Amino acid sequence: MIDGPYPMLALLGAVTTGVMAGVFCAFSVLVMRGLAQLPAAQGVAAMNAINSSAMTPVFLVLFLGAAGLCAGIAMVTFLLWPDEGTLPLLLGSGLYLVGAFGVTVMANVPRNDRLMKLEPGAPEAAAYWPTYVRQWTRWNHVRAATSAAAAIVYAMSLV
């Protein structure tokens, strides 16, 4: 069993990455499936509206807070190198930082930016929409899976 500040850090890591796993999963299995069924112009307009309104304080606190917490856990763990729990704490942090935060920056946001530049009713938007939905959702599945894996690994460090 880990001791010191690590049980609380691991618990907070498990909760925050678990919440983000739920957010990403719900978006993939509910929102994107619904948007994919819309005609391209409506789907593009709806997704652009979602992306424009997504930067709420609540989402930013959850998403960036989880990333900051994971980075903090990794730094504290790496610097202090506890006798137990080092691997799961570093692995949980890496899973979220690379698989959720990194994928967001490198895969989802560039697709959102490209979609935002398209006029919803334009032929270019109609042509890009099916590709966008498929690729964006695939990367979102990665975010959901790695966030869930991070939560599990953090929780496993507590036993």
How would you describe this structure to a colleague?
The protein is mainly α and 159 residues long. The chain has one domain. Helix content is 84%, strand content 0%. It is built from five helices and no strands. It starts with 5 loop residues before the first helix and ends with a helix. InterPro entries: Anthrone_oxy. It comes from Streptomyces griseoruber. This is DUF1772 domain-containing protein. Keywords: Membrane, Transmembrane, Transmembrane helix. Pfam families: Anthrone_oxy.
| Element-level helix/strand string | HHHHH
**Number of domains in the coordinates?**
1
Total strands: the figure is 0
* Helix percent band: over 70%
Biggest sheet details: none
Shape: elongated
Keywords: Membrane, Transmembrane, Transmembrane helix
Protein name: DUF1772 domain-containing protein
InterPro entries: Anthrone_oxy
